[in-house]
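From the pipeline queue, job 12 of 40. The input is one protein chain; the requested action is below.

Action: predict structure.
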Amino acid sequence: MSYSAIATVKRELLVRYLEAWAPAALHRARRVIYAHGYADADGGAAVEAAMRVLAEQSDLVRGRELTMVATGDDLGAIAPRLAAIQAESGAGAGLAVHTISGGTDGRLPVGLKAIGAARVPVLGFLDASSSSVAPATVSALTAGKPADVLLVLPPGASSDSFRTGWPLFSQVELAVSDEPGELLVFGTTAGKSLEGFKEALWSVDEFAGVRYRDPGDPDRHLIDISLTPHPGPLRREILAFLHRVGSASVTELRTFALTETVYRAADATRVLHTLIDAGTVTREPSHGRLGGDVVITL
């Protein structure tokens, strides 16, 4: 497995999502918190990339508070590098960085409470692909309002124990072969955040054969990273969903794609057009725009 390529994909996805999340959160609230767990897992490459994104918000943090809390086993070598990026940013006192060594499970929940993470926008990134992470560590992020988490689990891991407190939950495998890949999980308390994550997911550049796999696809099809992803797995999942429920509105099927698959709502609309044209499903009414209230039946 190309671990370096997978690490690059994870890092770019974090950067793309953070670039959209940080300015939106700063416009919405006076205090914003970004939490980075296992910051020493990759030698600090991911947390430094995140720090650069936060430092670019220097114009927005004036009069506001943007805080990073980074935890890991030993951040002694990483803390000075983060401080240097902070010093060069010109963000002044509005950008605060707290590095806490001693382990993420033991330190992150305490650190979030100490800096007052309750009821302010919070985004957490926890790459536990080489570590074990406690469900309580992930759920500690739900103190935020709204709250988002990007969580990476080892190949073959289950995300079931991490769903508590996250009303919206999506996951995708990062794979380079037929073997199980690392599991990337996104949890959020806001629908717009899930849409933003999906846009970032498919806008990442393809690296060294890394592809996505939808954990809900029984055929375990590998999907190339693309702005217009291959619709095969989504087609199968929509048809399986219709087999279970009989019929569903376009809105319900778009929501199903967004929340239960790796795809976006817009991808579901694209698949529905092809299914209707092929005669695989019917629509009611039979003519006109494919609006949200149109009912789709096998």
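Job complete. The first strand starts at residue 31 and ends at 37.
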